[in-house]
Specification:
This protein is an alpha+beta fold. 31% of the residues lie in helices and 34% in strands. The chain has two domains: 196 residues, 2-Layer Sandwich (Murine Class I Major Histocompatibility Complex, H2-DB, Chain A, domain 1); 122 residues, Immunoglobulins (Immunoglobulin-like, Sandwich). Helix 1 packs antiparallel against helix 3 and helix 1 runs parallel beside helix 5. The N terminus and C terminus are likely disordered.
Length: 342
């Protein structure tokens, strides 16, 4: 019997991961992604990608269907397996996949071109429990999902094609048994060695570069912009402080999603709308793993960046900044008076 849809992706996941790492302190996710574009009845373009968190481990050459690795530590982490056999399995799987989808498209009169996608993987948690997942997509939308607990494929959207694909997948009992074995019994053991070899990459920390500037939307409104970029890993906390107090969510506060940079770092912007010369002091506060227990505090109107270790130091830094700003304004006022008297 030939491998069914997503069968090889899950089997490849099993072959890619093995070993032990006892120091797991956070959740990790492995994803194997396949995208097949069916241009017509005779031409299909397939791409594949394996990811550990946001790190690309390797990809599938769309012409030869051979596996290529991106990170130098991936291949040493792999078990000693016969890669000729794996390559053959990939080719067998993709041929079967293309055949099954093409047959379904012909029977259900599905218009070309269309895109079929498959995502399979698992999440490993600090307590060594895991959650498996497998999804099939059609033209960028959820199509089918697999429930590991009862080994059943569910329809995400009811179309002419989805019941056909669901029935094809559901009848492969060997596939169901494989999913249950891989993810319910071996996911924890199989993922740990890859995490061990990739530990340096996963623990990489790059501190954020933060700038604060303003632009005028109208005479009655000033936009304060806090631009944070070049940081890794992805989780970060960015907040505006008004007179030392965090500005709560509201219509005047707009923070973008975290977006990727080309060098595998991230960026975002937080914009606060204020009234010009409203008498308040403002600062952008950034918290990130690379800063440890400290925070980055950048006041509006001052180019100096301040690292604070806690609330007391933060308030002290803010008081010093406001005091200096007040003295500067008083100095400018005196100079203006002297100039007028002259």
């Amino acid at each position: 019997m030939q491998p069914p849809l997503c069968h090889l992706l899950l089997l490849l996941l099993y072959l890619l991961l093995s070993g032990t790492w006892a120091d797991l302190e956070e959740a990790f996710t492995i994803r194997l992604l396949q995208t097949s574009t069916f241009q017509n009845t005779s031409f299909v373009d397939t791409e594949g990608l394996g990811m550990l968190e946001d790190i690309e481990l390797g990809s599938l050459d769309k012409h030869s269907w051979a596996i290529g690795f991106y990170e130098p530590w991936v291949r040493p982490a792999l078990p000693h397996s016969d890669w000729d056999t794996i390559d053959n399995m990939i080719k067998i799987y993709l041929r079967k996949f293309h055949y099954l989808i093409s047959e379904g498209a012909m029977q259900k009169d599905v218009p070309y071109p269309f895109v079929a996608q498959c995502v399979a993987g698992c999440e490993l948690y600090p307590n060594k429990t895991s959650r498996a997942f497998a999804y099939v997509g059609y033209n960028g939308q959820d199509f089918l999902s697999f429930n590991v607990d009862n080994a059943t494929w569910f329809l995400c959207q009811d179309t002419d094609l989805s019941p056909y694909v669901q029935a094809v997948l559901q009848k492969y009992t060997a596939f169901t048994e494989l999913v249950e074995f891989l993810f319910n019994n071996t996911c924890v053991d199989d993922i740990e060695l890859l995490l061990h070899y990739g530990k340096a990459a996963l623990e990489r920390q790059v501190p954020p570069v933060t700038t604060v500037f303003a632009c005028t939307r109208s005479p009655a409104q000033l936009l304060l912009v806090c631009r944070v970029t070049g940081f890794y890993p992805r989780p970060i906390s960015v907040a505006w402080l008004r007179d030392g107090q965090e500005v709560p969510p509201g219509p005047e506060l707009n923070t973008s999603a975290i977006l990727p940079n080309a060098d595998l770092t991230y960026q975002l912007r937080s914009i606060l709308a204020v009234a010009p010369q409203d008498g308040h002091s403002y600062a952008c506060r950034v918290r990130h793993r690379s800063l440890g227990s400290r925070s980055l505090l950048i006041p509006w109107g001052d180019s100096d960046m301040v690292l604070i270790a806690g609330l007391g130091a933060g308030l002290l830094a803010l008081w010093v900044w406001r005091r200096r700003k007040h003295e500067h304004l008083e100095s400018e006022s005196r100079n203006s008076i002297l100039s007028n008297e002259d």
